[in-house]
Amino acid sequence: MKWIKNLLYFLIPVSAFILSTYLTIDIVLKGQETTVCPDVRGKNVEDAKTTARNKGLSLIVLRYERRNDVPYNHITVQRPDANITIRKGRIIYVIVSEGPQLVEVPTLTGQPLEKAAEILGERLITIKRTIYIPHEKAGRVIAQIPKGGDAILEQGGVVLIVGIEQKPYYMLPVIKNTDVDSLLEDMETKKIRYRIDYGGNEQTAVKTNIKTSILPRTIFSKDNELIININPGGQIWVESL
């Protein structure tokens, strides 16, 4: 039984030491203030340091790494993780992106397409897509995405909306008992291309109704050239080429 007594003499001081150490640490920890670790991912280093300092923490950069999808000097990884409770005074360790740079998108509205492409090339910005829509400012940029003044990653791209010549469309009216002069005047007013051919035969010359090769109320482009056939009796045929 002597060995049991000796073991007890050994275990009692060790147990007392462990218990007192635990109680001391527990008391010390309870006496320290805690805070929620902020999320600094995506922030630039300067802003992240300010955020950490406001929480009673400090921030140290472990290393930089090449990232094409994260701007230069912006944080990609942090330890401890965000939104957990930690003691004030702790250090947040971060990994930071070393590129690419953020660039400001220039305002291109009103510029000719060629000039807009030149301006973007100087800033290492590409044209991702060009969308053409009918507009009075043909050949010029009428809108852009993102808009001027926004920041994007270097070598990023923009979408340009460019005007093209507007092509008016007209509807062929129902023509009844209309003389040639009024019809031609209407063509001139609407700037419709037309050509007059005179012809006809005696069988149709006495008719007074108007016949057209395209149906009334049919929509057609101003690019279509209309041939107007006039017979001696005053009848008019309108054809679309």
Structure at a glance:
With 241 residues, the protein is an alpha/beta fold. The chain has helices at 2-31, 45-54, 113-122, 180-190, 202-205; strands at residues 34-36, 58-65, 75-79, 85-87, 91-97, 102-104, 126-134, 141-145, 151-153, 157-164, 169-171, 194-198, 211-212, 219-221, 226-230, 236-240.
Cα-atom radius of gyration: 41 Å
Indicate the proportion of strand residues.
25-35%
The total strand number stands at: 16
Percentage of residues assigned to helices = 25-40%
Alpha carbon gap, first and last residue: 122 Å
> Stretches where pLDDT falls below 50 for ≥5 residues?
202-209
The helix-and-strand class reads alpha/beta
Mean of the pLDDT scores?
77
Main sheet: strand order: 12-15-16-13
H/E topology pattern: HEHEEEEEHEEEEEHEHEEEE
Assign an overall shape: rod-shaped
Total helix count? 5
